[in-house]
Design a protein that fits this description.
By secondary structure, this protein is an alpha/beta fold. It has 14 helices and 20 strands. It has 2 domains: about 5-180, Flavin prenyltransferase-like (Rossmann fold); about 190-290 and about 295-400, Rossmann fold (3-Layer(aba) Sandwich), CATH 3.40.50.10300. The chain has an 8-stranded mixed beta sheet with strand order 13-12-9-14-17-18-19-20, sandwiched between helices. The mean pLDDT is about 95. Bound molecules: ligand PMT.
Length: about 400
């Protein structure tokens, strides 16, 4: 792994300073930009020049030596670092930081940084087991500092025991692990989402449709992509921008949506149908504009295919999630759709709620599942809701890389 990070190594005075030289060298070889801060005692063992050569950066040891007049060195270094490693960490530096003391370059940087700080202690075994040192380590650990335990073996003082600075290779390994990109829960999964209304043509200038803006479905697609999914969005006509990292297939009618979703179905892990699909279409599409005439006019309607129901009938390993737009008996109607369409989840929304439904930025929903989940969500933005709903689905089904399924 190429360690594209800024690492500040704070070197304090103990015989293990020679191992800190190897640590700085190995971190630099791994790709990190390394800077070194030393205490005066550390300089009794190895000169700053050695660390300068290994890090190819200036070495800092005097709080009052401001090399760059545009910045305050200890604050600049503290802000610069992605990670601070104190190696070797003496009992003295551990005690000072545990008690908020900052009387040299190392301790002022340690108090000023908001980056993660790791201590790699190295000292005589009796010092390491001293009650005050144990107390200071425990107090720092409680404050969120991380410790790389010393290993056991022959110590420079002649003792055999715990107190050797962990090997530089091992510390580099821990750093690389800490910066490894975390795999997203839906990585490697294909998620198909539908959004928006469908338009069912009457003639070349007119159609039957509904008020869906596509906001809920687009939010679901954006959330799926952010959770790592290969996301395909089958969208009815809406005025929204294409979400980042999402493949959009534009359709117009329920029949076109059916064809597009069917083509994506086989290798989909999850299908989420947020679209408001027309249940009826004009039985006949006139090729010419219908002329107005006196009196009433009747348009005969025919049923469209229930896409979700058909997917439910063809279901193999796919996880099927429907939305239900209801105006009354919201939960009962949702549960009935969950069952008849053979779904895993259904998200019901009362589309008469002023904070939810068609066109709004917010929605108020309840997540129902085949396992009996009945989880209401308060009014919130469709974007926030989308992430919460997807996360809840991932958790309940234990799907995705988090669970190795
Ligand atoms: O787009 P917005 O303005 O953000 O509004 C969001 C929304 C209210 C449209 C959305 O939250 C929502 O509820 N979508 C589902 C609307 C709907 O068609 O509900 P339904 O209860 O009629 O259908 C139940 C499910 O079957 C839905 O998943 C629907 O996509 C699906 N269906 C319905 C009919 C059909 N012919 N084929 C289908 O696949």
């Amino acid at each position: 792994m190429y360690l594209n990070k800024k690492i500040l190594v704070c070197v304090t005075g103990g015989i293990a300073v020679y191992k800190a030289v190897a640590l700085v060298s190995k971190l630099s070889q791994a790709g990190a930009d390394v800077k070194v801060v030393m205490t005066e005692s550390a300089m009794e063992f190895v000169t700053p020049l050695t660390f300068q050569a290994m890090s190819r950066n200036d070495v800092f040891f005097d709080t009052f030596d401001e090399k760059d007049s545009r910045v305050i060195a200890h604050i600049d270094l503290a802000d610069w670092a992605d990670l601070v490693i104190v190696a070797p960490a003496t009992a003295n530096v551990i005690g000072k930081v545990a008690n908020g003391i900052s009387d040299d370059m190392v301790t002022t940087v340690l108090l000023a940084t908001t980056a993660e700080v790791w201590f790699a202690p190295a000292m005589n075994v009796n010092m390491y087991e001293n009650k005050a040192v144990i107390r200071n380590i425990a107090s720092l650990a409680e404050d969120g500092y991380r410790f790389i335990e010393p290993s056991e073996g022959f110590l420079a003082c002649g003792y055999v025991g715990k107190g050797r600075l962990e090997e530089p290779e091992k510390i580099v390994e821990l750093v690389e692990k800490a910066f490894e990109p975390k795999e997203l829960p839906l990585a490697g999964k294909k998620v198909v989402i539908t959004a928006g209304p469908t338009r069912e043509r009457i003639d070349p200038v007119r159609y039957v449709s509904n008020f869906s803006s596509g906001k809920m479905g687009y939010a679901m697609a954006e959330a799926a992509a952010q959770l790592g999914a290969e996301t395909v969005l089958v969208s009815g006509p809406v005025g929204l921008d294409k979400p980042v990292g999402v493949k959009v297939i534009n359709i117009e009618s329920a029949a076109e949506m059916f064809a597009a979703v069917s083509a994506q179905y086989e290798d989909a892990a999850i299908v989420i149908k947020a679209a408001a699909v027309a249940d009826y279409r004009p039985a006949e599409i006139h090729t010419q504009k219908i002329k107005k005439s006196d009196g009433e006019s009747v348009i005969n309607l025919a049923r469209t295919t229930d896409i979700l129901q058909t997917l439910g009938e063809r279901k193999e390993n796919q996880l099927l999630v429907g939305f239900a737009a209801e105006t009354e008996n919201v939960i009962e109607n949702g549960l009935s759709k969950l069952k008849t369409k053979n779904l895993d989840f259904i998200i019901v929304n009362d589309v008469t709620d002023p904070d939810g439904g068609f066109g709004n930025e917010t929605n108020v929903v309840t997540l129902l599942s085949k396992n009996g989940t009945n989880k209401p969500y308060p009014a919130m933005s469709k974007k926030d809701l989308a992430t919460l709903l997807l996360t809840a689905i991932i958790e309940e089904e234990r799907i995705g890389s988090t669970y190795d399924r």
